[in-house]
Amino acid sequence: MQIKSAKFVVSNQNVSNCPKTNIPEYAFIGRSNVGKSSLINMLTNQKNLAKTSSRPGKTQLINHFLINDSWNLVDLPGYGYAKVSRSQKNIFQKFITNYFKEREQLISAFVLIDIRHSPLPIDIEFINWLAQNSISFSIIFTKCDKLKPNVIQSNLEKYKLKLQEDWEILPNFFITSSSKFRGKEEILDFIGEVNLSLEKKSNL
Ligand code: GTP
Ligand code: MG
User: Fold this and answer.
1) Closest residue CA from atom 16 of ligand 1
2) Measured between alpha carbons, how far is 44 from 27 in angstroms, rounded to an integer?
3) Of 73, 99, 103, 128, which is the most buried if we count CB atoms within 10 A?
4) Residue nearest ligand 1's atom 23 by CA
């Protein structure tokens, strides 16, 4: 799928204020600093559509971006950022989990995982929470430019083994690097195919 247009729509902290349009939506979630906003810029061919920072905690709101005037990408705040106060952390967690529970337009989430780390409890907990709540998701491994191919492969295998402790069916995986534009076509083609299947269903 080609991205012909990508426009910022709205930021807010409350799922009830998210756009009322009834178009498919895909959300990016993961630990702070994992590269969610960078990936959105990479996918949309824009440098500053989503705000990025080398310091964790940059994205603090639910941000909607309208793509090709027909579907939404959503940039979310990261979880697991230790430096925000406990009360603020709770607010983040609540409005993030509310978004996933209540947003009917959400078709699928992408959980971003930094390929350099072995499976972290916070990521496994979040993945398990999505699965338990029947929220469809794929996993995107980020920052693959930072490792050699054999290390990428062995870290990927470790992740699969960890998930197999809890789940029989594994989600889709994407291997990406925003700085090297790796994984772009695979993710966009995946979204394109899902959008097409939704269109076909609505024409039945
Ligand atoms: P929060 O909004 O704080 O939750 O972070 P985020 O997940 O949106 O991360 P962001 O996109 O702001 O990126 C965090 C840092 O990682 C920035 O310094 C990016 O330049 C860097 N980064 C993101 N993706 C990649 C990548 O694929 N490769 C490399 N080498 N660096 C990356
Ligand atoms: Mg961000």
Assistant:
1) 35
2) 14
3) 73
4) 35
